[in-house]
């Protein structure tokens, strides 16, 4: 099974991904880790910057996720995933591995809380620069056109994690049952 957590920076995706993957025994694939490694390796600068290869991190994440799925592992993928094309690519990775897909949009409906979280963030990965609040506000983020699970971290990370874990277990029951 592939659980894809999507949402703006600073809404709690990584915290949720860590909790959910630990609770269900899944592999956590974090786009930030991949993109930071690409940056610190010098590959991005050698390629002409992120504008020359804007989807490099996502392409690696899809490939690594496909490998884990094909090896029989469940995966929790963690990325902003702002565009329909990236969302479709995750769906394609699940389909190619004959895995179930659970799309989750993570939001924080309390704008002031979200802003505080973004402004208080610091990078936990060498090579990762966290966005400013202005960058979060200005980010392109297309609305979803397919059915998703939406969790709101303003109501609490524990509640959001529980909702995702419950959805995972319901989907898992359809495989077993």
UniProtKB/TrEMBL annotation:
Domain of life the protein comes from: Bacteria
Gene3D superfamilies: P-loop containing nucleotide triphosphate hydrolases
Family matches, as Pfam families: AAA_33 (PF13671)
Stored PANTHER family: OS07G0160300 PROTEIN (PTHR37807)
Name this polypeptide is given: Adenylyl-sulfate kinase
Native source organism of the sequence: Mycobacterium dioxanotrophicus
């Amino acid at each position: 099974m592939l659980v894809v957590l999507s949402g703006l920076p600073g809404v709690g995706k990584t915290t949720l991904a860590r909790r959910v993957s630990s609770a269900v025994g899944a592999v956590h694939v974090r786009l930030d880790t991949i993109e930071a490694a690409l940056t610190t390796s010098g590959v991005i600068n050698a390629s002409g910057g992120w504008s020359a290869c804007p989807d490099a991190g996502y392409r690696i994440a899809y490939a690594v996720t496909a490998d884990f799925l094909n090896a029989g592992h469940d995966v929790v993928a963690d990325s902003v995933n702002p565009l329909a094309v990236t969302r479709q690519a995750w769906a394609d990775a699940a389909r190619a591995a004959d895995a179930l897909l659970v799309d989750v949009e993570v939001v924080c409906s309390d704008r002031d809380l979200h802003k505080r979280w973004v402004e208080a963030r610091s990078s936990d990965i060498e090579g990762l620069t966290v966005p400013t609040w202005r960058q979060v506000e200005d980010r392109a983020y297309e609305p979803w056109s397919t059915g998703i699970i939406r969790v709101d971290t303003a109501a609490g990370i524990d509640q959001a994690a529980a909702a995702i874990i419950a959805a995972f277990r319901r989907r898992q029951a359809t495989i077993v049952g």
